Amino acid sequence: MPKAYEEIADDIRRSIREAERGPGEQLPSETELAKTYRRSVPTVQNALRLLVAEGLIDKQHGRGTFVRRPRTPAVRDNRRHQWEKDRARQSFVRRAETGATEHDTGLEPNDLVFHAKYCEIRASRELAQAFGVPEGTALVERTYRTRHTAETAPFSLVTSRLVRDMIAANPDLLDDSKEPWPGGTQHQLHTVGIEVGRIEERFTARPPTPEEAKQLELPTGTSVILLHKTSYDTQDRVVDITDVTLPGDRTELCFTTRLERW
């Protein structure tokens, strides 16, 4: 038999899903809800905590409780890598028409706000081993944040690392003012004669750190998906190592594997 707070949560959940309460609409106060459901305020509070954890409502300090506006979902399909490679040799105009985030979300370039920051770092032992270079080798570390113009949280937290000497032949690849770069990393590497031959992706999941939860505006109880991506050139040399933190409440991972016919 459901508990009292679960029954209250069920009714509010139903009202949201059936559009009786719209995105951004304020719920009655906890005292008013207690009167409506003829339950105690602590029981109502337990119901609201459950709905906050599900990402259906937001409690805003000093303002009240509101129906959470649904966030733009992103579907990350592993076929995106071939799509990006195909674009790497296209004209600037074709490359500028769309990008990876638009591919994942269905949005248009004008729907997005993009930010990139580059800095030079020294390769840690782990990164040096992965790239096959001496520890302390100069790397270019790039961080990317892209969000919908109507939202305040980015779709993901992205950190990419390249060996500086590997890309230094094109000074533009060391300059974050050249971002956003039509065609992305695969085209950037193409400008210095590097062709990506394969990409390896490893996924794990865990609870977010406080900083990740803040940046991604995650509902309580929402996990993050961690993507560690390694790109190899056609000589099997590591050319890019990227770590992506994806919010579990708006990210879908889609894997398509084509099988050879018998």
Task: Please tell me about this protein's structure.
The longest helix has 14 residues, at 4-17. Helices cover 30% and strands 29% of the residues. The mean pLDDT is 94. A 6-stranded antiparallel beta sheet has the order 4-5-6-9-8-7. Strands 1-2 form a two-stranded antiparallel ribbon. Strands 3-10 form a two-stranded parallel ribbon. Strand 1 (57-60) and strand 2 form a beta hairpin. The termini are far apart. By secondary structure, it is α+β, with helices and mostly antiparallel strands. It has 2 domains: 4-67, Arc Repressor Mutant, subunit A; 74-254, Chorismate lyase-like (Chorismate lyase). The protein is elongated.
Write the topology of this structure:
Blueprint: H1 4-17, H2 30-37, H3 41-53, E1 57-60, E2 64-67, E3 74-77, H4 80-87, H5 92-96, H6 100-105, E4 112-122, H7 125-131, E5 138-148, E6 157-163, H8 164-167, H9 184-190, E7 196-206, H10 210-216, E8 224-233, E9 238-247, E10 251-254
Parallel strand pairs: 3-10
Antiparallel strand pairs: 1-2, 4-5, 5-6, 6-9, 7-8, 8-9
Give the tally of β-strands: 10
User: How many domains make up the 3D coordinates?
Assistant: 2
The CATH homologous superfamily of the largest domain is termed Chorismate lyase-like
Radius of gyration: 23 Å
CATH-derived topology of the largest domain = Chorismate lyase
Overall pLDDT confidence: 94
Q: Tell me what the CATH architecture of the largest domain is.
A: 3-Layer(aba) Sandwich
Strand content: 25-35%
Physical arrangement of strands within the biggest beta sheet: 4-5-6-9-8-7
Structural classification = alpha+beta
Q: How are helices and strands ordered from N to C?
A: HHHEEEHHHEHEEHHEHEEE
Q: Determine and state the CATH class of the largest domain.
A: Alpha Beta
Which residue ranges are poorly predicted, with pLDDT under 50 across at least 5 consecutive positions? none
What's the shape? elongated
Largest sheet: 6 strands, antiparallel
Distinct helical segment count: 10
**N-to-C terminal Cα separation, in Å?**
53 Å
Helix content: 25-40%
